[in-house]
Amino acid sequence: MIVLIAAIAALLYFTRDDSIEKYCRDVIKNPSKYPALYLKNYVFDKNASIADRIKVAPDFVLENLKKNKVFGNYSVYVPSNDEKKLVEEYFDLLPKLNRDVLTAKLIGIYFINDYDGGGSTGWVMDKNNDMYVYMVINSVLLKENISHWLTYRENNCFYPADKIVVNCGKKYKGLLYGLLHESNHVVDLELGVTPYLSEEVRYLKKLKNKKTKFTKDIWLKYRNPCEEYDFMGRSNLTYYTKLRVPFNKTYYVNLSKSPFVSLYGSQNWAEDFADMATFYYLTQILKQPYEIKILEGDNATTVFPMLSDKVKDRFKTFESLYK
Fold this sequence. Notes:
Number of strands: 12
Number of helices: 12
Distance between the termini: 39 Å
């Protein structure tokens, strides 16, 4: 604890006193207020199988999640034996890099009923300021196919919420998308594919806003892409909240001209990497489709994000990661 406090204190002394800094100060000064952020409060075995890491969320994790909920009445979900086998099967489908990182850093997978989103990855610190993670997955991803889930997500930020249909095939459940996307956040946290995973991680790990190969010429700041890739209304899009915007086809016209693989990924560089890596793996490795159909009365327009030249220009990042 002393090592952690000393490292963070030196950082925070020289940073401006904003809400993130205040939060980080409080995390360090009052660890008992934030049990979900400290590894000592979990049972962690790096040699455990993925099946043994499917656990019931600790009460302090569930309470932490409930603080940020919008709609859902969160409760723990215990997967059946068949569902646990599905998790194992899909874990084996993940890139080797993702599997290796999860084996080293994943505390547990917690399935939650009525979760607002598809999933989330929570970071946890040990006494040396090294970070570990737990993964939260919406239990519905065990049941819905991947196309149904992504259609729901894509419509979630708009009203009316029935103008878009996403096709990623019917072979896999939404669980595969959830595991890919969330494990890509863990890869990012470990390898620094983006400058930092979140503002909190930036402060706690003393990371700088240095461009990486992935973000260079695409992103200026965490939530701000380069001017040529920003577009009207992008920053107003929110998912799994009550703040919906009127649907407009222009969002997808602009998406097709951008280096982003999804509107969800255009929110910030962390989601950009997680979604880009996910759809790269789904389409290029697992050979699944990815198309977005926009419904306009009796007509429809289909967008193929992975065929964009600007998206293809970024494939080299994943060819390197998955070689």
